């Protein structure tokens, strides 16, 4: 399902090309996060990352915010603060900065892969407003 080879060769991934975002995610995030609904003990990633795509125009900005959040989750920095009410605040991630950058970049890219032409993924109500943004 997930398109392979879609990762952009950013400075972050180039510097850490031995790291694999999906593997980092599987090992360190899936205890709490499912990719798609239904949720485990944290919001499904695909809904959260759609909020990041709404809030941030570039992958760089989105990844920077995401890395900062994973290092030190704070309510005032959450892109989806309602999730804190439902699930509690995320604990700070013990991962290194390069690992966080790779996993954040991978998550950012999952949005385009999952959404395609904006048809899929009904049911959360957070996607529709993105549909006129010309997502490739
Ligand atoms: C111990 C459980 C747990 C683990 C492990 C965990 N998370 Fe979370 N995460 C949460 C919870 C709970 C929330 C919702 C509350 C919040 O935003 O702090 C959350 C929120 C988030 C958000 C939304 C932040 C925002 O701006 O609103 C993202 C993105 C995220 N997690 C990514 C990750 C990634 C990537 C990993 C692995 C490196 C990870 N999480 C590991 C529990 C976890």
- Derived from helix and strand composition plus strand pairing, the structural class reads mainly alpha
From the alpha-carbon coordinates, what is the Rg to the nearest angstrom?
A: 14 Å
* Total number of strands: 0
Low-pLDDT stretches are 122-130, 132-136
Q: What is the mean pLDDT?
A: 82
CATH fold descriptor: Cytochrome Bc1 Complex, Chain D, domain 2
How are helices and strands ordered from N to C? HHHHHH
Number of domains: 1
Amount of helix: 40-55%
The second-level CATH architecture is: Orthogonal Bundle
Task: Spell out which ligands are present.
Answer: heme C
Query: What is the global morphology?
Result: globular
Q: How many strands, what sense, and barrel or not for the largest sheet?
A: none
User: Which CATH C-level class is it?
Assistant: Mainly Alpha
State the helix count.
6
Distance between the termini: 17 Å
What labels describe this entry?
mainly alpha, 136 residues, disordered C terminus, single chain, binds heme C
Protein described:
With 136 residues, this protein is mainly α. The protein has one domain (21-127): Cytochrome Bc1 Complex, Chain D, domain 2, CATH 1.10.760. Helices cover 46% and strands 0% of the residues. The chain contains six helices and no strands. Helix 3 (45-55) packs across helix 6 (97-115). It is globular, with a radius of gyration of 14 Å. The two termini are 17 Å apart. Residues 28-29, 31-33, 41-43, 48, 66, 69-70, 73, 78-80, 83-84, 87-91, 93, 95, 103, 107 line the site of heme C.
């Amino acid at each position: 399902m997930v398109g392979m080879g879609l990762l952009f060769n950013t400075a972050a991934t180039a510097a850490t090309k031995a790291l694999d975002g999906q593997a980092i995610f599987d090992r360190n995030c899936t205890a709490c996060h499912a990719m798609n609904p239904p949720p485990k003990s944290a919001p499904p990633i695909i809904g959260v990352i759609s909020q990041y795509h709404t809030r941030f125009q570039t992958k760089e900005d989105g990844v920077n915010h995401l890395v900062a959040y994973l290092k030190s989750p704070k309510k005032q920095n959450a892109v989806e603060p309602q999730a804190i009410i439902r699930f509690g605040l995320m604990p700070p991630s013990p991962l290194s900065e390069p690992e966080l950058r790779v996993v954040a970049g991978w998550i950012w890219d999952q949005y385009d892969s999952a959404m395609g032409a904006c048809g899929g993924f009904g049911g959360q109500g957070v996607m529709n407003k993105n549909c006129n943004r010309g997502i490739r």
